Amino acid sequence: AAEGGAPVTVVFEGRTLAAVAGESIAATLLAHGEFAQCTGKDGAPRGVFCGMGVCHDCLVTVDGRASQRACMTKIADGMRIDRQAAGKLVLTADLVDVAPVPVTDFPVTEIHVAVVGAGPGGLAAAIACRRAGAEVRVVDERAMPGGQFYKQPATPAAVPRRGLDAQARDGAAMIAEAQALGVRFSPATTIWGSFRDAEGRIELATLTGGAVSILRPRIAIIATGAYEAPLVVPGWTLPGVMTTGAAQTLLRSYGVAPGRRILVAGNGPLNLQVAAELVRAGAEVIAVAERAPAPWRRPAEALALWRASPALAAKGLGLTAHLVKAGVPILWGHAIRRIEGGARAERVVVAADAGGVERSFTVDAVCMGYGFLPASELARQLGCRHRPLGGNRPHAEVERDDAGATSEPDVFVVGEAGGFGGAHIAMAQGTLAGCEAARRLGRDIAAPEDARRRLTRHRAFQTALWALFAAPTQAPAPIADETIVCRCEAVTAATLRHAIAARGVADVPTLKRLTRAGMGRCQGRYCGPLLHALAEDGAPATELGFLAPQSPLRPVPLAALAVEKPEWGGHKRALLPDRPARGAEPLPVAEAEIVVIGAGIVGLSTALFLARAGRDVVVIDRGKPNALASGGNAGSLHAQLLSFDFGARAESGGTPQALTLGLQIASIDLWQRLEAELAADFEIKVTGGLMVAETERDLAFLAGKTEIERAQGVDCHVIGRSELRALEPALDERFIGAAFCPQEGKINPLVATQGILEAARAAGARILADTETLAIDRAPNGFVLTTQRGPLRARRVVNAAGSYAAPVGAMLGLKIPVFGAPLQMVVTEAAAPLVTRLVAHADRHLTLKQA
């Protein structure tokens, strides 16, 4: 392999490009003027935006391997790189022809402390822990430690002629100290999920070089930092538009400027710093548009900043002076209104927040940074308590003390991962967290008072700094209808507004299900706050109102998960989350003939047909309608029995499950009739279903099963290898036959249950969300339900609470043998049509379909 900095060549779209070993693919392409790396779902070109692996807008195919992030993938000599088109992916070795690893589990490494993130906070925590004698491993997605603040040069070309500046030198010193102490580093390692095992121990699922392993620390210190919040304006998805941090990474790590004519815009001192660094590197910064008013208009705040830290205040003043001396106009109180261009950004229009004349600049790069949002998904997955924050960027922020200790005794969150505060606060908090973690491991160590003093001093400075840079809380202009809000799914503001107005959406999960906003690779990190602001319309923020982090937190190659696991051994009970409903206002109704508890598909369809029959019906739900299993399942329309329902072998008889087959056939028919009646599109496709067999024993099992199914009126019969090949030629040759049922198909549960909800409302049913049933008491002529919003009388009660049915039944002394049993759903990225039918396995707890 070529050493870092050595000249190499790569081939991009058939064009040979000179490159430098060690730099990112994104840096190479931008250095050659190739701003677009892939195509969005709307067919428009996309390019590097975040520069830190969050947005997935720079995906390329490298040597036949699809979906490689150009900003995170290092150049190697001879690479063949191609742009990637959304939805046009041809399945590669990552998805097919995978030989399962013949082990029963992923490799597990146990360690005292795992630090997630090698930025200032993570490095400080690792150093403190290691000094106390604890085993420490630092995991980071980037190839080099240092994080966003202490970015280190990856190649000699990135080192300025005058040498590293103080910031880079300080970072290099911290990295060297950690290494000298014996801290182990795992670079270029993605943590795609955080879990707890059966004993409650933390498990971090990692991906390194295409291989998955488990890191099991006794204590986790999360120092994942933050990502920059954009300003959603027309054109913000054009290639050449990127965050200020992405531009700084290109410059500091690879010595590549993001363009020739650059406009920097946003809110906060980082934008001034990056603009000055670009000027020093010889780039042409045509303007800096800062949302905050000029500092001299806030003399009291400027004086408070100077008193908090004269040295840091003087550094900021020097940045401004350097830009002015270089002739860079600083437009105080201005923000971007729109970005124009075709294949890339060509013009940017800015204007004062309060109105006024628009100013247009010709550009080939726009760098924007309008604040920061914490990367807190790991902490949320591990159960740390969060508090909701409203404002113009609603989000959930972890509850923690000065040492980063959270509600979970084995989890610490330091630095920006718990709320923005700057690198110096992160370092002080990291030191305190490292000491406290070591103490909880039994090490005799006291936190240095110097760290507490530094934490207090830098918090005072940050408070003064953001008072000086405080910007208006309202957006500079309303979002135009044609503006894309969700980058990943290319969902426009018009689509979102229509769903809210025409379909009565008042919560983010429903908005997500109906529009796909927030469903893309970035998992709503960029659009989530705006979705909340649009859907909730000023309602108080709660944690349940935000999109929940899902595993995988980053896309994972399917091949990396192809570990041969023991076969299914029965449903495992789910722990129901103990979260109170958030509704507080009194119920709008005191009495109903029938109250249905649960607004999933069972409760809503019950309400629909009761209301159509003229009955007075109210549906109550502790959360939002269609928010749990009904809106989160795979959407299979099964007509034949699955192998685990039928029984291990045919001689089990398949009862009582077999007796429900008539209901399944009737249900598929009913769904189709409702779709026609309601003039809705539930995306129903009845293309038939296959249960495939690998062995003669499987075929014998299917023969017995189909005999019972035919007796119940299901059209199902066994077919051989050749007929199976004709129906689904993409299936593996090892399958020797299948049970074929032409009545099976699929439906989109995200929209289908919503359609039933809207139909029930139209028929007169009243649906009350955020209403938790706390008690049910018998009363003359019926029942009294106690909710956190007040009492509700009913003549009859329908228990349609799904996984909560047992506790609801217990309120009346009834034992309901129902419990929550989650299934694992794996969703791949869009691929060319390959499989048309519903596919299940005769001997495995496994189904497959392509939407």
Briefly note the structural class of the backbone.
alpha/beta
Which geometry do the CA atoms define? Answer: globular
Average the pLDDT over all residues and give the rounded result.
89
Sheet having the most strands: 7 strands, mixed
What share of the residues lie within helices? 25-40%
Number of helices: 20
Offer a concise description of the structure:
By secondary structure, the protein is α/β, with parallel strands linked by helices. Helices cover 27% and strands 24% of the residues. The longest helix is centred in the middle third of the chain and has 20 residues.
Question: In words, what does this structure look like?
Answer:
27% of the residues lie in helices and 24% in strands. The strands form 10 sheets. Strands 1, 2, 3, 4, 5, 6 and 7 form a 7-stranded mixed sheet that branches. Strands 8, 9, 10, 11, 12, 13 and 26 form a 7-stranded mixed sheet that branches. Strand 3 (38-39) and strand 4 form a beta hairpin. It is globular. The protein is built from 20 helices and 41 strands. The protein is of the alpha/beta class.
